[in-house]
Every structure is written in structure tokens, then in C-alpha cells.
Amino acid sequence: MNKITILIHCHDQPNIIASVTNFIVKNNGNIVYIDQYVDREQNIFFMRLESEFVSDNFNTNNFKTDFKTSLADKFTMKWRIYSSEAKPKMALFVSKYDHCLYDLLARYNSGELNLEIPFIISNHNDLKHIADNFKIPFYHIPVTKETKTNAEEKQLELLKSHNIDFIVLARYMQIVSNKLIDVYKNKIINIHHSFLPAFVGAKPYHSAYKRGVKIIGATSHYVTEELDAGPIIEQDVTRVTHAHAIQDLIAKGRDLEKIVLANAVKLHANRKVMVFNNKTIIFT
Amino acid sequence: MNKITILIHCHDQPNIIASVTNFIVKNNGNIVYIDQYVDREQNIFFMRLESEFVSDNFNTNNFKTDFKTSLADKFTMKWRIYSSEAKPKMALFVSKYDHCLYDLLARYNSGELNLEIPFIISNHNDLKHIADNFKIPFYHIPVTKETKTNAEEKQLELLKSHNIDFIVLARYMQIVSNKLIDVYKNKIINIHHSFLPAFVGAKPYHSAYKRGVKIIGATSHYVTEELDAGPIIEQDVTRVTHAHAIQDLIAKGRDLEKIVLANAVKLHANRKVMVFNNKTIIFT
Amino acid sequence: MNKITILIHCHDQPNIIASVTNFIVKNNGNIVYIDQYVDREQNIFFMRLESEFVSDNFNTNNFKTDFKTSLADKFTMKWRIYSSEAKPKMALFVSKYDHCLYDLLARYNSGELNLEIPFIISNHNDLKHIADNFKIPFYHIPVTKETKTNAEEKQLELLKSHNIDFIVLARYMQIVSNKLIDVYKNKIINIHHSFLPAFVGAKPYHSAYKRGVKIIGATSHYVTEELDAGPIIEQDVTRVTHAHAIQDLIAKGRDLEKIVLANAVKLHANRKVMVFNNKTIIFT
Amino acid sequence: MNKITILIHCHDQPNIIASVTNFIVKNNGNIVYIDQYVDREQNIFFMRLESEFVSDNFNTNNFKTDFKTSLADKFTMKWRIYSSEAKPKMALFVSKYDHCLYDLLARYNSGELNLEIPFIISNHNDLKHIADNFKIPFYHIPVTKETKTNAEEKQLELLKSHNIDFIVLARYMQIVSNKLIDVYKNKIINIHHSFLPAFVGAKPYHSAYKRGVKIIGATSHYVTEELDAGPIIEQDVTRVTHAHAIQDLIAKGRDLEKIVLANAVKLHANRKVMVFNNKTIIFT
Q1: Which CATH number does the domain housing residue B217 bear?
Q2: What sequence ranges are listed for the domain ACT (chains A, B, C, D) (predicted)?
């Protein structure tokens, strides 16, 4: 049996839902999940649909061609169609902090993540032993002012040669270049250690301490050219008091960071995220 | 323009979604919201759909008849169709506590609630002044062991004569009889002052204090014959510490109770709740 | 029996705690609550202490004098001593939104708030009927560009003539002048409808919607000259999704605003808040 | 410099605080933290105090003797005094689930936990590779009906020979015998995968699914003879919907379990927990 996930957006107009559901039926598919959302301000229609096709004759490429000509072109849709067999390939970028790395790899190991991790890239060697423990190839690509361009070339080469679908910056601590962002638009997931848009930039726990907030947070978002301003995928928060020193905020924040990042990775890998107008639509 | 909300459930089977969406199109309607859920354990399909009909010829009763014969009978559906023009009528039952009453009436007054409150019933006169302030008829129906049956007759009479759609027990403090429950099946909303199923029954804050929990909660649920065991609509919780006395739990709990109850009332009044197998499906 | 609450801060130095506890014992008091905090960055010691004095001879003024000469001067303390008999007097400033007003007055009515509300001031007449219902004097003081100075004079006159201890801006919607802020330093409590420091200024729900955050919040803080930048007393948050329109954020936010403001008012009225370096220390 | 943590409880009576603080001063100590709580129902006083002693002559044993004779005996105190130099020794019991194990060991590795882990015990060999990765001795002690007594002897032997201070059951999946509970009273920390007291016993996620709760939780508590009824140390919760299958609850629950257990371990290891009347007092 083939299982297909379809993501669509287009200008809102009558009969989109009926047309799509009819198209599935015409192709002998059964809809097992449908959800839609209309941005009334921008007048944009969004849909996520999962469908099963039992026929042996079903061919994903033919289906895509047919979908384009008989449906997508008519409604001027932007669309993506995924086969559930193809697990997305994720590259992990890390630096020196290990909590998000441990957390993601432990989930990966236990089968919780519907994805593949072909390799880990780091600008430092500190976490190589963890990659080794989990038997995942680890590439040490140092980044200095002088070597930055060269390092990016190496990164891109690795990403391309492994057909990487998306990148996760698990506290990578380096600003990613526009070149990489262009290639992986809305496909680079970062974890920022504050409740964005509060405390953009470096040292957000220090800023939170200074401002005396009673709640701290973490935010996972797609990386865009503007720092910490990309579409937000997931956020979470926890209470703090005046008695928490900066070190306490950092420790409490680690727990937020790993959970928020893992949730964002799962949403992305399960094709539940659409991006429009620098905001995400998250399907359930 | 007519706006219709449809709630459906039936055994899961192929082509339900396409058949329903086609039916809407055939009737010149435009689907503005669709959400579905399949209970895979019980193999039951649930759907909520909102549709707009611009034609002046549209007739809700004809639509219902047509829906039944050409769709619902075929799939053996249980279904309800609501016109958005008809606001549900809600009866408020209160006793001596005023926090939920104030909260609901303040929301009602500000236009936040999509419903009508024809009257308030209470077994005590203590809160009459609040009903008076908000200019809502208040019926004092005392309940004692001896008068209980008689009191219920009076309640039912009032409920029927005002075509009440659903009842909200805003800390009513009396156990409602099976007779009333039968007439208003899954239409009596209670607020229980604990995180059910912990601390069923009377004095839950005392039990929570004794057990030394670090989190307390409130639960809004439909009333069934078994006490505090009906389908849960909404729950919320808040942190407490050893330093909170029972009185503190009660005070903190009041804030939970009023928010949780108000949310449950809004979900019900907006026809976003379905009940199956003593559980709720809550559409967004 | 006399019950006294003492709030102290001074540079951290040895033997403060023992000296203070000895002083209480020497005065035949029994300490029923003690909590302390040291800001290690600034090296400042903070303490809150509650003590009971059973002797009929106990005199609060003598106690204060004695405290100053034999203790406070020695450690160069900033200190405040409150008798539990004297309930603080709170002035309510409102405008057109009623949710915080209803919430605070319902709590006040039920005895939940340890304070007195001598009057309500508003720049509009819209909420007068609520003040009337709760039988609290209501002063309509319109504010326009031309009358602003004059209006403030009237406000200050009322505040002084009623010996008001602190002011609560329950969605007052007007910027308070520095003159009022100077007189009531760290004694004017505002509720801001965002998770500060995100979305400072006007229309924070619109900004939150535009940024696509997954969590919205409310913040209660003391008013300082810089807008929305004063010491934070209390914050809370709630989850939202892409499907929430601005109106939904506003409605959900109202529930946050009233709970957060009420908690801040209770903390202040119970003398559990100290301010230092634009941050609050909140005792339990 | 010596740093000492003192935990006290006794019947509430006048002058305890002043007497303790005086005793510290007399011994040339400086109090850096003091917190107290009075259970007004039971009339019991609890205190936690941290104090620094700079003198080279300070001797912890002498201090304890002196504390007992001149203070504890007088007030009939139960007391414990810890030197901050002595890190508590924790034994980890695991079975087949790895999420709590990975989480605790990653924290341990990064220096977040103020304790030592001399060894891990498991009734299965499945997680040995993780213990090996983290270079912690792993003892495989199978438990069957027949070998249960024998297995416990081996466990106790290991615990004694390593001077283990407390035990953490990181999803150990076996019921611990009363013999072990007696030796480690209020020193065996369990993580239960529900919001206790809801869903006591086996398969709580299945029960939560069946009941249709909108919030699930996890609870860390000390093990007592009655199953899942010991003093609660820490709890946390997360929202779920009707659309979450049991497997989803289990996956979401894992995140709760590891955070809640880690927090409980930190509170215990930092001597911030006291137990009285089957409830915990948790100092900040």
C-alpha cells in the first residue's frame, strides 16, 4: 500500500476542498487525514491531506504529474507530495554543548524519530565521542574567519552528496551564511535559548536575568537571513524566580531547549509544517 | 448568507470525506472549515464541517432532509446540523459560590459568549443580587430531601418552557438526578474542582492537600449517572507547594475553575464537542 | 496580639540574620515567617520577616524607633515595617475594558483581597455602572491633551485625600505622567498584555500575531518612566496556534490579564514584593 | 572554608529560629541561606539552613555534638547536618527503557548533578551498552519469582559495600521489597508515569487514554510499602487531545518522566527535601 502526504497552499477560492477530495477518489485513494486552514487576512488557503492507495498500479510520479495538470495548475497551487516510505535525511550541526545532541540521538536510537541522520558536522571535536557511541559519522569542520568560506564549501559538499533534506542546528553557535540558507530555505531548524522575540541575539539568559522576567523560554525556528527572526515552529517556557542565578537559568533552559528542538524536528520530519509570510502553519 | 455547521460520526469506511464534500458542492455551498478524526481503536469516523450557502433559495430544513436521505442513511451516520443564526440557550445553575457566576456573566455581557442565558436557577438566594445586576431572571428553587422531586419538576418545567439547549452547573453543589440527566444527555456541563480522575467526590482540595500533590487542577465534564465520571471537556492545572494551606488551594482553584468552565462552555456553545464512548472529541 | 511584617535590604555582611532574630526575641516577639535572599552579583541582602508580639505593652512606633537605632542604622538598612492591622488602600484606574475590573471587584467582594478600595477613577464613564453595582465611588476624570495636567491634579488630590497607598491600572489605556510616578514610586501596578520584554508598547496582540509566536503572555509590572520597562511582578502565558486570529488572541489574553494582575495585586498588598535595581524580589 | 547544611523539624515553639541562628553565630558561622515552614495543622516546625565557617579549627563532628547537646535536645528536634564536601552516592536501578537513563547520565556527565553514581543495577542486560559508554559499572541481577530474595541480597550487598546514600528507580519496572524500603526509608526515588493519585499501578497511559483526560502527567515520589502512595517530590504535566493514541501519550510521557525524575534527583541530592506525614517539604 502506498501512503501519500499532500501539502497545498493557494489563494482561497470556492471548491478547493471538494476538488482535491474528488481527485483522490478518482485515483482510488482513501483519505485518512484532512486538515485545512484559511488565513483570512491574506486570503490564503492551506491544506494537509494523507491518503492511502491500495492498487499495485499506483505510481507516485504519475500521480504527481496528474495532480499538477488536473488540479494544481487550475487553482495555481504551491504544492508538495511526499511518499511515506521516503524518510527525510537530517544533518546535525553541533558545537560544544551536548544536551540537545544526547537528547536527539537517544530519541533517534529508540525509534521515536521518523528520519535518518547520515552524519554530524561540528566546528569542534568535543562531541565526537558521543557521535562514536551512537555510531554516526562525525565530520570535524573547523570554522575561523579565514576558513569560513572554505568550511561552508565542505559542508555543502557533504550535504549534497548525502542528499540531505534538512539541517538541525543543535546549539551550533555559529551564524550560518546566506549561501547555505538559500539552498535550504525553511529547511534549517535552529534552537534559540529565549522566548523570541524577547532577547534576540547572544546571551539571552543573561538578558533575561537582567530584565528580571518570571518566565524563561526556548524557541525553535527556521533560519532566515535576519538573525533569530525566522518562522517560529515551536516554543515552550518555564517559571523562574529572583532566586535563580544566571547559571540556574541556563540549566533550566537546557531542558526547554532539548524538548522544544525535538518537537520541532518531529513536526518538520512528519511534514506537518508549512511556511507563509514568515509564519508557520502547524498541522496536528 | 446561511452558515451551517455539520457534526457527523459513523463507522469508518472509504469515501466519506469525498462524499460529504461533494454533497456540499452539489448544494452550491462553500466549505470554510473541515476537520476529521478517526478513532482507530473503535474504527469510528468523526467530522466537523462549516459551510456557507449564498443562494437565497437555500432552506435549512430541505438541506437536512436531503442530507439524511442522500448521505446520512447511506453511511449510517449519526449527525447534527446547526444554523449559525440560532444561538444555543443555556440555563445557569448556581448555589452560593459566586466566582464562576461573575466570570460567566462578565463574559456574557462583553459579547464573548455565543449563546443566550434566559435564566439562572439556584437552591439559595445568596447570589440573586448578581443576577439582578446583570438583569437576568433568577429563580430560587430550594432543594431539601423532601422537596427534591418537586424541585426537579419545577426545574424541568422552566427548562422546557424556555427551550433550553444545555445546562451549566456553575458550582451548583447539588447532585443532579438521573431524570434531568436523561433529558439533557451530554448537555449538562459541570465544573469539578480537581484534576479528575484524581480526587473524585466531595472536598477534593482537602484530599489534594492530604496527598501532598505539587499540582492541582480543575475539570469540566458532562454529567453522567456515575459521579464525576462523565466525558471530560476541558482541564487545567496550576502548581502548588507544601506551603499552601487548604484555603490557599481553594483560592488558587477558583481561578482554575472559572477559566476551565468558561472554556468548556465556549466549546459546547460553538458546537465543537462530540461525545463517543464516554470521551470527547474536541474540534479546533 | 500584634503582627508585624518587616522588609529589609542592605549590603550583605555577616550576622544580619542572627542580629535581626535576636532583636525580635529581645522584644518578646515570636518569628512566624522568615525568608531571605542574597543577590550575589550586587552583594545585596534582602529579608522578609513576620513576627507576633503578645504583650499588651507592645507599641509599633516604639518598636520602629528601636529597630532603627539599634539595628537598621548599624547595618545601613533600607527597611519598612507594617502592622497587619493596617490594610493598604488601593486606587483603581480604569478606562473602557471591564474584564480586569470585574475580576478584581468580584475578588474584593468575596474577601479574597487584603486591601481597601476607596474609589475608582476613569477617563470614561463606560464602567460607572459596575462601580455602582459594587457600591464603590466612581470618579470620572476625562483626559485630553489640553486637560491632562488638570486631570492629574484632580487625581493627585483624590489620592492624597484618601491616603491611597498604591494604584492599580486595570487596563487604564493612558500613559501616566512622571509626576504621578514620582509620588508613587514602585507603587503603581500596570498590566501589560504581552510577555514583556516582547512586544513593548501599543497593540501587542497585533504584534504577536504578526510574529507568529506559539505562546502569548501578560505581564504585571511597576510603572516607571520608561514605557513597559518597570520591575516585573508577575507573568503568565498560554499557548496559541496559527489558527488563532487577532481577536482570539485578545480573548485568550483577557483571561491571562485578569489572573496575572490579581496575583500581582495580592503580592503587593501582602507586602511580599521588594524592588531593587529595576527587578523584584518576590517572597513566598 | 566549611559549608554546612542543616535540616531540622520539631514541634513548633517560640524562639527556635533565634536559638538556631544564635548557635551559628556563637560557632563563628555565617548564615547564607535560611528558610522555614510551619505546618499549622500538625503544629510542626521545619527549617533548612546553610552556613559557612571560615575558621581552620572548625570540626564537623564537634559541631554536630555541640548542636545535639546545646540545641537539638532542648527543642526535641529531628535533625540532619551535611557537609557540602560529601557528595551523596546514588545507585541507579534500570530495566529496559532507556530515556531516563540517558537523560540522567548526560546530566551527570555535564556536571549538572551534585552526586556520584558508583554503579547501575538492572534485571536485564539491554542497557549495558549505555552504562559502558558512560564508563559506569553495570551489574546485571536478573529477578524472577524464584530468585527474587537472592537478587535482593545481592543488591543490598552492593549498596552497602559502596555506601550508597539513595536509590533512583529510573523506570525499573520491578516492585521493590519492603526489606529494601526499610533500609532506605525515604531514600528510594521512583518515577511514576501518571499524575498521581490518578492512575495508580500498571499501564497508567492506557488508563489515561481510556478516561479521556486532556492532560497527562508524571510523578516522582519516595517509595513506600503501599504502591505509588509515597511522598510526592515533583510532578509535571502536558496537554493531550483526543487525537493522541496511546503510543503518543507514551512518547509525550517520556519527556515528562525524564524531566520530573531529574528534578527530583537534584532536589534530593541538594538536601532540599524533608518528609513528614507522607508529604514532602521542598525548600527552594
Answers
A1: 3.40.50.170
A2: 5-83
- Cβ-Cβ contacts under 8 Å, B34 against chain A: 17, 34-36
Nearest to C102 among B102, B255, B284 (CB): B102
On whether both B29 and B104 belong to a single domain, the answer is no
Chain A partners within 8 Å of B25 (Cβ)? 15, 18
Buried b / exposed e over B117-131, threshold 16 CB at 10 Å, is bbbbbbbeeebeebb
Q: In terms of domains, do C245 and C181 share one?
A: yes
Query: Which residue in chain A is spatially nearest to D111 when comparing CA positions?
Result: A251
CA nearest to B209, candidates B242, B254, B256, B171:
B242
Q: What is the mean pLDDT of residues A85-98?
A: 95
Of the residues B228, B236, B248, B255, which is catalytic? B228
Number of domains in chain B: 2
3-state secondary structure of C245: coil
Q: Looking at residue B12, which CATH number applies to its domain?
A: 3.30.70.260
**Gap between the Cα atoms of C47 and C36, Å rounded:** 4
Residue for grid cell 487553482: A75
ipTM value for the complex: 0.95
Same domain, B134 and B225: yes
Q: B203 and B96, same structural domain?
A: yes
**Cβ neighbour number for residue A278 with a 10 Å cutoff:** 17
A138/A266 same-domain check: yes
CA distance D128 to D139: 8
Q: Which of D281, D127, C86, D176 is nearest to B214 (CA)?
A: D281
Measured between CA atoms, the residue of chain C closest to residue A228 is C211
Taking the CA of residue B123 and the nearest CA in chain C, the distance in Å comes to: 19
Q: pLDDT, tens digit, for every residue of C59-112?
A: 999 999 999 999 999 999 999 999 988 899 999 999 999 999 999 999 999 899
B43 and B75, same domain (yes or no): yes
Give start and end residues of each alpha helix (H) in chain A.
Answer: 16-26, 60-67, 73-75, 99-109, 128-133, 148-161, 178-183, 204-211, 246-269
Please state, in angstroms and rounded to a whole number, the distance separating the CA atoms of residues A103 and D54.
42
pLDDT of residue D85: 83
Whether residue B245 and residue D40 make contact (CB cut-off 8 A), yes or no, is yes
For residues C93 and C68, is the Cβ–Cβ distance under 8 A?
Answer: no
Question: Could you say which of A23, A51, A83 is where a domain stops?
Answer: A83
Q: How far is A168 from chain C (nearest CA, A)?
A: 20
Residues in chain D with pLDDT values less than 50: none
Whether A160 and chain B come into contact, CB under 8 Å, resolves to no
Asked if the model's pLDDT at residue B257 lies above 90, the reply is: yes
D45 contacts: CB under 8 Å, gap ≥ 6? D8, D9, D10, D11, D12, D13, D16, D36, D37, D38
Mind listing the pLDDT tens digit for each residue in C150-182? 999 999 999 999 999 999 999 998 999 999 999
Asked whether residue B143 falls in the same domain as residue B113, the answer is yes
Domain containing B56 equals 2-83
Do residue B183 and residue B245 come from a single domain? yes
Of A63, A83, A103, the domain-final residue: A83
Q: Radius of gyration of chain C from Cα atoms?
A: 21
DSSP letter for D71, please.
I
- pLDDT tens digits, residue range C15-60? 899 999 999 999 999 999 999 999 988 999 999 999 999 988 899 9
